[in-house]
Design brief:
Distance between the termini: 11 Å
Number of helices: 4
Number of strands: 0
Protein name: ATP synthase protein I
Keywords: Membrane, Transmembrane, Transmembrane helix
Radius of gyration: 20 Å
Length: 150
């Protein structure tokens, strides 16, 4: 007696990426609202910029790792480590550019920006871990056609 198996295409992480970005945007919008209500427009702008930084940097990194894992699974871990390093570098460069622009403390609250980046990063990582551990990922892919020799 054999059990019929379903040969569905493997989930490449797009659903997890969209859900994680959506959850992080929702968290960021709550922080923007809290900043606007408690500390004014500079806090709201700081929270908004922080949210966009987190979603942009982590979203692009996750998309790139998923693309490499799809094309070359054997290089996925190496590329993920490289991507993490580049994400840290990208965030640092964004902060240096914002500090040099003169927008911080005048138009954008430095405290709300930093706090939102920290909260957004923790939120992003939490949602990624929950979604990644709850996905059922097979160890191997079944062949496209199995000959049933009976």
């Amino acid at each position: 007696m054999t059990t019929e198996t379903r040969n569905a295409p493997r989930d490449r992480g797009t659903v997890a990426l969209v859900r994680t970005a959506g959850a992080t945007l929702a968290l960021g919008l709550l922080v923007v609202l809290a900043g606007a209500l408690t500390s004014g427009s500079a806090a709201a702008y700081g929270a908004l910029v922080g949210t966009l930084i987190v979603v942009g940097v982590f979203g692009f990194g996750t998309f790139a790792v998923n693309a490499v894992a799809t094309l070359m699974p054997s290089a996925a871990l190496m590329f993920a480590l490289l991507t993490y390093t580049l994400q840290v570098l990208a965030m640092g460069l964004v902060f240096v550019a914002l500090s040099g622009s003169g927008l911080l403390d005048d138009e954008i609250s430095r405290e709300w920006l930093g706090g939102t980046v920290i909260a957004g990063t923790l939120g992003w990582l939490t949602v990624q871990v929950v979604l990644s551990t709850s996905r059922r990922i097979p160890i191997y892919d079944l062949p496209a056609h199995q000959g049933g020799g009976g």
